[in-house]
Amino acid sequence: MKPQFDTEQELLLALQSSIPAIYNAALKYLYTHGKFIGAVRKQVYALGGDDHDVKIVLNEALLEGFSQIQDGVYDPSRSQIITYIVHIATKKFYTKRRAEGRRTAMHLRSMETNEMETNTDPMFEMDRTERIALINKALAGIGSKCQELLQLQGVGFSMSEIAEKLNYKNQNVAKMAAQDCRTKFRKYLTERPELVAEIRML
After folding, report:
1. Which of 8, 74, 134, 186 could form a disulfide with 69 if both were Cys (CB 3.0 to 4.6 A apart)?
2. Is the pLDDT of residue 56 over 80?
3. What are phi and psi of 31, to 5 degrees?
4. Among 6-20, 81-95, 97-111, 162-176, whose mean pLDDT is lowest?
5. Are residues 85 and 12 in the same domain?
6. Is residue 102 part of a domain?
7. In b/e form, how buried is each residue of 50-80, taking b as 16+ CB within 10 angstroms?
8. Looking at residue 80, what DSSP letter applies?
9. Residues 92 and 126 in one domain
10. Phi and psi angles of residue 188, each rounded to the nearest 5 degrees, phi first
11. Is residue 113, in this structure, part of any structural domain at all?
């Protein structure tokens, strides 16, 4: 028999329970809930996914949502349970698509680089290597953390991903740090016109 929860409070209490039979019944209820499945499917389809993606992200989001409810992270005053877990599912799939897109872009850049290395003469390659070395030297002049932050931003990492990777409190703090790093970098280059001229010459 399909488990039934008449109110949001009943469902929340079941998911907060430490008794496996109770919280498993609540998870089964959500897993077979038409509105929940439909909402996740709509978001995944909108991001270019298919039914296979829906199934995977549905399972992952349910487990993460359940974990957050058990740990007290979920605030019932801010959203309903289904809305909360659909948001988790959307965020998970969006992050996955971004990562896939980044890997594809990096692969294409790698292929282009390999083609350039195959078709260019040694002098061109020497100039290119020197230019990269000069830019890295300039970045090193503003500190290792700023250097890493700007390099991550340059290859397409989001601010939330940068915050997590570099241990900033949140994406807003990372965004402020990025602005500060760019200001430092501009100042560093302004004070070294000979370095800028050398880079432009290559």
Report:
1. 74
2. yes
3. -65, -25
4. 97-111
5. yes
6. no
7. eeebbebbbeebbebbbebbeeeebeeeeee
8. -
9. no
10. -60, -45
11. no
Mean pLDDT confidence for 132-146: 78
Domain, as residue range, for 33: 8-96
Domain membership of residue 103 (yes or no) is: no
- Residue 164 within a domain: yes
Q: Is 0.90 surpassed by the pTM of this model?
A: no
Residues 6+ apart with CB under 8 A from 3: 25, 26, 28, 29
Number of domains in the chain: 2
User: Residue 118 phi/psi, 5° resolution?
Assistant: -75, -35
Q: Tell me: do 82 and 128 sit in the same domain.
A: no
Distance of alpha carbon 57 from the chain centroid: 15
What's the pLDDT tens digit per position in 17-51? 999 999 999 999 998 888 889 999 998 888 888 88
